[in-house]
Design brief:
Layout: H1 2-25, H2 32-35, H3 40-43, H4 47-58, H5 80-83, H6 89-99, E1 102-107, E2 110-115, H7 118-127, H8 129-132, H9 139-144, H10 158-171, H11 174-197, H12 199-203, H13 209-225, H14 235-252, H15 254-261, H16 270-302, H17 311-320, H18 326-347, H19 366-369, H20 375-385, E3 388-393, E4 396-401, H21 404-413, H22 415-418, H23 425-430, H24 444-457, H25 460-483, H26 485-489, H27 495-511, H28 521-538, H29 540-547, H30 556-588, H31 597-606, H32 612-633, H33 652-655, H34 661-671, E5 674-679, E6 682-687, H35 690-699, H36 701-704, H37 711-716, H38 730-743, H39 746-769, H40 771-775, H41 781-797, H42 807-824, H43 826-833, H44 842-874, H45 883-892, H46 898-917, H47 938-941, H48 947-957, E7 960-965, E8 968-973, H49 976-985, H50 987-990, H51 997-1002, H52 1016-1029, H53 1032-1055, H54 1057-1061, H55 1067-1083, H56 1093-1110, H57 1112-1119, H58 1128-1160, H59 1169-1178, H60 1184-1215, H61 1217-1231, H62 1245-1257, H63 1269-1286, E9 1287-1290, E10 1302-1304, E11 1309-1311, E12 1318-1321
Antiparallel strand pairs: 1-2, 3-4, 5-6, 7-8, 9-12, 10-11
GO molecular function: heme binding; iron ion binding; monooxygenase activity; oxidoreductase activity, acting on paired donors, with incorporation or reduction of molecular oxygen
Organism: Salix brachista
Cofactor: heme
Amino acid sequence: MAHSATKSMIFTLLAVAFVSCMKFACPNYLSTARFSQLPFSLILPLLPLILYFLTSIFVRSSASKNLPPGPVSYPLFGNWLQVGNDLNHRLLASLSQTYGAVFLLKLGSKNLVVVSDPELANQVLHAQGVEFGSRPRNVVFDIFTGGGQDMVFTVYGEHWRKMRRIMTLPFFTNKVVNQYSNSWEQEMDLVVEDLKDNEKVRTEGIVVRKRLQLMLYNIMYRMMFDAKFQSSEDPLFVQATRFNSERSRLAQSFEYNYGDFIPWLRPFLRGYLNKYRDLQQRRLAFFNNYFIEERRKIMASNGEKHKISCAMDHIIHAQMKGEISEENVLYIVENINVAAIETTLWSSASKNLPPGPVSYPLFGNWLQVGNDLNHRLLASLSQTYGAVFLLKLGSKNLVVVSDPELANQVLHAQGVEFGSRPRNVVFDIFTGGGQDMVFTVYGEHWRKMRRIMTLPFFTNKVVNQYSNSWEQEMDLVVEDLKDNEKVRTEGIVVRKRLQLMLYNIMYRMMFDAKFQSSEDPLFVQATRFNSERSRLAQSFEYNYGDFIPWLRPFLRGYLNKYRDLQQRRLAFFNNYFIEERRKIMASNGEKHKISCAMDHIIHAQMKGEISEENVLYIVENINVAAIETTLWSSASKNLPPGPVSYPLFGNWLQVGNDLNHRLLASLSQTYGAVFLLKLGSKNLVVVSDPELANQVLHAQGVEFGSRPRNVVFDIFTGGGQDMVFTVYGEHWRKMRRIMTLPFFTNKVVNQYRYSWEQEMDLVVEDLKDNEKVRTEGIVVRKRLQLMLYNIMYRMMFDAKFQSPEDPLFVQATRFNSERSRLAQSFEYNYGDFIPWLRPFLRGYLNKYRDLQQRRLAFFNNYFIEERRKIMASNGEKHKISCVMDHIIHAQMKGEISEENVLYIVENINVAAIETTLWSSASKNLPPGPVSYPLFGNWLQVGNDLNHRLLASLSQTYGAVFLLKLGSKNLVVVSDPELANQVLHAQGVEFGSRPRNVVFDIFTGGGQDMVFTVYGEHWRKMRRIMTLPFFTNKVVNQYSNSWEQEMDLVVEDLKDNEKVRTEGIVVRKRLQLMLYNIMYRMMFDAKFQSPEDPLFVQATRFNSERSRLAQSFEYNYGDFIPWLRPFLRGYLNKYRDLQQRRLAFFNNYFIEERRKIMASNGEKHKISCAMDHIIHAQMKGEISEENVLYIVENINVAAIETTLWSMEWAIAELVNHPTVQEKIRDEITAVLKGNPVTESSLHELPYLQATIKETLRLHTSIPLRSCPGIILAMPILGLVVARLVSNFEMKAPSVTGKIDVSEKGGQFSLHIANHSTVVFDPIKA
């Protein structure tokens, strides 16, 4: 049932997020071409749902036979969407009814195997006790347990056994039960007495949890500390329960722990983890200071006479003997506070939550209610879910009681909990953290504020006192309407006039003041401040951080804006109204009579009843709660129809980057002549009927007279200093007047027509003179572009460009093209529509500002200033000969500013020139080094096309540049953000490693995994290779064999006298070790020594293969086709090498495994990776060739690259002896003489940091992501640890330092020289 509900839930979301947005918005959008134009940044938030949709269509009916059954797992999230925040035993028991006694849940990237049968569970715990003997840990539990310094969540092992032994004696024995049972009964009797003495218990009932909580805390604290709390109001009890409740809430919540299951979401955890650390730090300090230290003092004062009288005495005694640390003591207290007290308290309560709509992980019911959580929606839901129902808004529960009688009972029974309005971070800003009355917490402050506000506002006396002034204001409205002829014919939007009336009604009551008209500057300011405050406070799009905590980081910028708005708003109220009343009261002195509400409130403040801040926030409340809400009641909300709007995105997913007149015309066919599009947080009303549009423009000309602006256009127009995008008003009219005379008249057309025709004739001549035009054709855009620029620049500056190669023309077109591209792209402008995405714009906006700054400087320096110089040199004799003269003249008269001059040029460059060219496309390739005929840049890069060279070139040519390697173009994107965009936009094209003729030989044309084309075959090969190679289980299974091989290396080095004096080239011995590690995993086989004939053959084959594949000298035919004939001989050698190499692998290793499997028959147990792979081939999943090429991949990609990294690590350690010493010290301090094992690597952070630094400095293959990292990291860590623990590694005295020169290849780097290293054994 739960599974069916989940499937229905996700399908519903898909209908909303995918099918509906296409169907309702525009059927044409279902075409592949149109849909492909949607920016990836738009699709990304719904990608998991779309992937589910595709998975649900193409999912195979059969699963891997090696994994238990389980519910369908979806990309990225696994089964997390099904289980949500409710992964408890009841849900697991329910799932076992469907999937059996053993089933699999995939929570993000983690597998959870559930065994619900007691007998099977017993077998599992016996067979795999170590793996299943520990509770699962995560980053939050690591914070709350000090990384496993407790008992409950520590890893099963020696530490766990010690902690359990120490905790058992004082807590978990029958003796303890007998010892403390009397005290338990005393605490329980006190509960009974309290209940009997409370009259309310017998009539209305009480929430008994608080009293039981006190009882349990006293039971455990008397056992732990021989201490107790006096009452529920005891300050220490209040602190203890708050700390523990918050700890439990955070630790149990999936909404805070998602980063453990879905790694790509981890960055959102950073802020929360700091809060957890802060909470735990204060919590442990509380336990220590008030309880643990008190026991220490008592024990110290009693000295040797002290007798153990509570559990803490016993634990401190164990710590004093050195059995545990002070931190262990703290974390024992941590465990008892949560595991013993809170869980027992939970058992005393039942969780009977009201019904409600299906709640989804992270979002709860937020996607269903969106931005429209109003009483009508709640009433509608009550028809379905009853008089009491639950809405889960992100991480918050909202219980709705729609029955009046039940609501009355709830308010009486739990008045304190329900007596306050819900607050959030935005309301806290707008109310000063509850310094008002409306949103303050129910209590003493609320009662005081209500009393002070009631007398001047909320009594019949006040109504009688001010009713005449109300009627006066209403009569003025009637008179204004009668006097307005337009009212009787066209009608008006009456809201503005009613708004003035309401403000005057309330401001006369509050301040004995009124506004003169709707144009009164103070009225304009007041309404703007209040409207913006209302909009922000009421919007879910700004408040989502309160409901979905992991989205809070996106709120930071907004909260600063809110604070700034509120600061200016309150200053406005104070300076123009409150302070005016203070002055009047001060001037009148004792003779002053209270004549308005503010006098009364100031008087209360002067008596010390409230603060100055309270006065301000009373004004804040009245401005919004009294004026704006009353104004809303006078209007109806009749929005036009339109396509379905979805939370956060509105209709943005439907219209994407294609909000043009054709799409709008298409939508009008469905939704009528007037319809609504919601683009994120903005409403767009579209009027497609000419007559209606004319009426709207006449009736609401001010609102519709301006073009829409956004943050990008504000950058490109200086915040509206131009004409095209400035707000309709006085500035617009002035700019239009100044631009009309030199640009937009028939006189101008006649004046410049001849020059236009000249430029057009030049185009015709150029085309006639170009032979290529008549045969091959040309891209004519560039020539037309030159023509248009010359037409406009001759008009503007009396100047022209000489040719398309003119440096100024090149700069002008580049600047304008980039400006147009950025301004027209939705992918860069989404922050205007979806505010919570704005943080992603920061980098782009800086680039836009930089572009615009350089662009305007270009116009000014080369064109505007030239005209100024000409005008200045001519003086009074100068005659206006171009548009710029006219505009500069207007600026010199003070009509416009210098900035306005610049932005007029900006407008003409884009609005007049570029728009004319948009119908044609241009091919703008990235910059790059000079390319030479035939060879391109091949002569520059040679055999050294590695990441360091590319990084160096990016410093010269920018984040995106072009290398031409013979006939092939190589576009390099070195900026991470741009690279991410490219990979997202063209994932299929860039999802495969580059192939060439040599790699095709060595991989059978892509029959392997590493170099195959990204797609179905790649996924199949990766799946088959993952299980036997790239899992933690594999690491655990083979780590002992790894350590055996490493120990043999150490023994060989110790037994070799030469090692201690002259040193050796250790690479060969490490190579044997690595081959044996991998071949034992692959084939359950090993080589006996470096002289083993099979080892010699294997290393020769692989070394030659690596050399050839990495060399440009052999691969040039891929880049320079006319040189390919010279490759024939080489390619034959490659084929011969590969043929002999694969035959070697097959004859000596693969066939040996086939024989063993055949001889064992059905009794055969898989004992190595090759058995698993052959089994997959026998089932028909892969071919025999695929088996061979898997072995090919492992031999090179796993062994050779790890060996390179190992050499780098040893070389760097030799050159940095202090690092060797620090690793040695860390191993000694942490492991205390025990050898380093794979399972102890995580305890050695400095060692791990050394490995990572080696990989950072010397990345073997920096452009390729490797699943084998799960093997490489522990192998590298263990080798370094073994060598450093046993030897001091030195350079031979002759050299002093190891040579760390690099040798590059095709996107690879390895050490150039295999150096000699001295291994001096460390004496015990």
